[in-house]
């Protein structure tokens, strides 16, 4: 009898992507196999939705997808559907009431229970709804099926202690809980031993790490400790909060060779009035002061941000303050969002909701300004010689242009001429930048050097596996630091918006 197949569909932030890697690992440990890439909708034996609750229409999107699967499940009685993640944590019993054909509902705190709940639903022939109120197992302690052979997420904390009025994440993920440094470093070392050469430290408020251990410098110490791991070439982290961004972290970034000079620092608004209404615990002067210190320590640092346009009560003067910060900070790129109500957040019921047409006009002005700055900042890269880590799936036109794509140390996307010798994802190619566009760089000349790496070996080993081994189904991993040229106008910030 052939093994049952599964498919995981992921929505939302990096934390959800990391959780989905764990869900895949749990299912494979339980004997399921991934549905081959290109499997038709509804053909997998188990379909898992790992949901996000930060968008106003998140529930409509989920129920629309569930509705499409209902007739398919009727034709295939053995098929199972599971819903997890933030929306499941929030809506609980509502999901089964609105979609009674769902077999399992689980929350953000008990993803490790999925295989057991699926089996219980199969035996009892009844929906299983189990939502834990506190974390049962740290995600990184669970089995995993990572999406990349050369780059990996490493979760260092879950939850958030902030109370931003536009964000529902703390209510769904709980208070911040930090993982012990020794456990984190042991995981990183194990990953490097498997061939991973780049890690991204992940937390809802990553630089508040240490708050529940009573060590305010725990995050900078962790960065420096990562610098001692032989074979680890690149360390990144996301997303920090300006309130907790201290000088010791800047020093650790500047002084630790494998910590990349790349920083994603969410602004949200440049107006002190709006920041106060958002319950953000910093003001414009503090934010720009951090940027100034980072640039003083690392002149080559690429800094990106998140910005919300049209928060309730935002005046034209408030918006101009945001534009001022964008001009001063000169972000390499920005994830810009039109404010959308998140059910259950204080901001959703605030007075002064901004008319859609006003928000749209401001949004377009902000995008135009940031596009201009991004292009100007990228043009400064022309003539630089950079080490690019070859990526998989980053260049959609690579086959047609006979190019490869990868990431520079500062995470800028680089398309470069394919070298004559064999190059694999995870390998490092040294190139000279010849052209800049707002969202990518181009290296049109011959590569100056090619360095085959253990990460490339790991990619080659994974892809040389026997054909009968189930192939992965992409989970929709966001490309860190590479925003879409024109973000969806109705989008809201991801969970990692601190």
TrEMBL record:
SMART domains (alphabetical): Elp3 (SM00729)
Keyword Hydrolase: no
Sequence positions that bind [4Fe-4S] cluster 2: 160, 164, 167
UniProt-annotated binding residues for [4Fe-4S] cluster 1: 13, 52, 86
The protein's Enzyme Commission number: 2.8.4.3
InterPro entries: Elp3/MiaA/NifB-like_rSAM (IPR006638), Methylthiotransferase (IPR005839), Methylthiotransferase_CS (IPR020612), Methylthiotransferase_N (IPR013848), Methylthiotransferase_N_sf (IPR038135), MiaB_methiolase (IPR006463), rSAM (IPR007197), rSAM_horseshoe (IPR023404)
Domain TRAM: 379-447
Role of this protein: Catalyzes the methylthiolation of N6-(dimethylallyl)adenosine (i(6)A), leading to the formation of 2-methylthio-N6-(dimethylallyl)adenosine (ms(2)i(6)A) at position 37 in tRNAs that read codons beginning with uridine.
Record PANTHER family: CDK5 REGULATORY SUBUNIT-ASSOCIATED PROTEIN 1, MITOCHONDRIAL TRNA METHYLTHIOTRANSFERASE CDK5RAP1
Annotated protein name in UniProt: tRNA-2-methylthio-N(6)-dimethylallyladenosine synthase
Gene source species: Streptomyces abikoensis
């Amino acid at each position: 009898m052939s093994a049952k197949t599964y498919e995981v569909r992921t929505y939302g932030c990096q934390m959800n992507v990391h959780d989905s890697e764990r869900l895949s690992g749990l299912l494979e440990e339980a004997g399921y196999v991934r549905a081959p890439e290109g499997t038709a909708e509804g053909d997998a034996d188990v379909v898992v939705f790992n949901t996000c609750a930060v968008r106003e229409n998140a529930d409509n999107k989920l129920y629309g997808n569930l509705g499409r699967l209902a007739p398919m499940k009727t034709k295939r009685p053995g098929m199972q559907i599971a819903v997890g993640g933030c929306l499941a944590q929030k809506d609980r019993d509502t999901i089964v009431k609105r979609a009674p054909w769902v077999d399992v509902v689980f929350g953000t705190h008990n993803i490790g229970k999925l295989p057991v709940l699926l089996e219980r639903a199969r035996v009892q022939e009844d929906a299983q709804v189990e939502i834990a109120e506190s974390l049962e197992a740290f995600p990184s302690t669970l089995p995993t099926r990572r999406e990349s052979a050369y780059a990996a997420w490493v979760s260092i904390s879950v939850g958030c202690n902030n109370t931003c009025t536009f964000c529902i994440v703390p209510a769904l993920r709980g208070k911040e809980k930090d993982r012990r440094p020794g456990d984190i470093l042991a995981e990183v070392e194990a990953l490097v031993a498997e061939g991973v050469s780049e890690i991204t430290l992940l937390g809802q408020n990553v630089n508040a790490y240490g708050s529940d251990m009573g060590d305010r410098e725990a995050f900078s110490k962790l960065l420096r400790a990562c610098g001692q791991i032989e074979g680890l070439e690149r360390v990144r982290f996301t997303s920090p909060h300006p309130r907790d961004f201290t000088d010791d972290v800047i020093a650790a970034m500047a002084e630790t060779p494998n910590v990349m000079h790349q920083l994603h620092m969410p602004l949200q608004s440049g107006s002190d009035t709006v920041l106060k209404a958002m319950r953000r615990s910093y003001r414009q002067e503090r934010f720009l002061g951090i940027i100034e210190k980072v640039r003083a320590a690392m002149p080559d640092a690429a800094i990106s941000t998140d910005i919300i346009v049209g928060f309730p009560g935002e005046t034209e003067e408030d918006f101009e303050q945001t534009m001022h910060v964008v001009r001063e900070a000169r972000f390499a790129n920005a994830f810009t969002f039109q404010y959308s109500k998140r059910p259950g957040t204080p901001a959703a019921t605030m007075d002064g909701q901004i008319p859609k047409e006003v928000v749209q006009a401001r949004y377009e002005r902000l995008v135009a300004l940031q596009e201009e700055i991004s292009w100007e900042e990228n043009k400064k890269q022309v003539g630089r010689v950079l080490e690019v880590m070859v990526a998989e799936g980053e260049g959609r036109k690579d086959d047609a242009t006979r190019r490869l794509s990868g990431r520079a140390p500062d995470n800028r996307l680089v398309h470069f001429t394919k070298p004559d010798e064999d190059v694999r994802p995870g390998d490092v190619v040294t190139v000279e930048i010849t052209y800049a566009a707002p969202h990518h760089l181009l290296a049109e000349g011959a590569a100056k050097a090619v360095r085959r790496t253990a990460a490339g070996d790991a990619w080659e080993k994974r892809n040389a596996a026997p054909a009968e081994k189930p192939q992965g189904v992409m989970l929709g991993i966001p490309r860190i630091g590479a925003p879409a040229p024109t973000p969806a106008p109705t989008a809201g910030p991801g969970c990692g918006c601190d």
